[in-house]
Amino acid sequence: MTRKKIKHEQIANESKRNAVFRKRVESLLKKANELSILCGIEMGIIVKRGEDNNPNNANPIFWPSPEVFTERLHKFTNFSNFEISKKMVTKEKYMEQALNAEKAILSKSKKIIEVKESQESIKEAMKGMCIDEIDTSHLNELNLFVDE
């Protein structure tokens, strides 16, 4: 059973809005903690309400703690351009890597098919099929297969 779509609009009742905000922030921080543990990464999150005129919401939330967040932020901003470019993957690089991986899979599949066709040709030759009836491309593949 599918869930019904959520309307993305501001909640009119302020107490409900604050309750939803607190729940969503808790969920976000829990997921961030899980992600940092499971993937072994250092991350930091700042959550600040958009309402600057409300003094109750003036303090932003830093995760995991303000001190650790500040340390991680300084570590991130102090990366050299070389380190950043070395670790960063652009869309083009990602697509190129994915394309190369697919090409490797395709070539591996082609080799497997060639080997199976060669094996079939050998089986046919052993059954008594005349060598003249075998296609020359299969004979060349057989020759390569035997050489390997």
UniProtKB/TrEMBL annotation:
Cleaved signal peptide residues: none
Protein's GO biological process: positive regulation of transcription by RNA polymerase II; regulation of transcription by RNA polymerase II
MADS-box domain segment(s): 1-47
Origin: domain of life: Eukaryota
Keywords assigned by UniProt, alphabetized: DNA-binding, Nucleus, Transcription, Transcription regulation
A Pfam family recorded for this sequence: SRF-TF
Cellular localisation: Nucleus
Record GO terms (molecular function): DNA-binding transcription factor activity, RNA polymerase II-specific; protein dimerization activity; RNA polymerase II cis-regulatory region sequence-specific DNA binding
Entry GO terms, CC: nucleus
Main location group: nucleus
Name of protein: MADS-box domain-containing protein
Higher taxonomy: Eukaryota, Viridiplantae, Streptophyta, Embryophyta, Tracheophyta
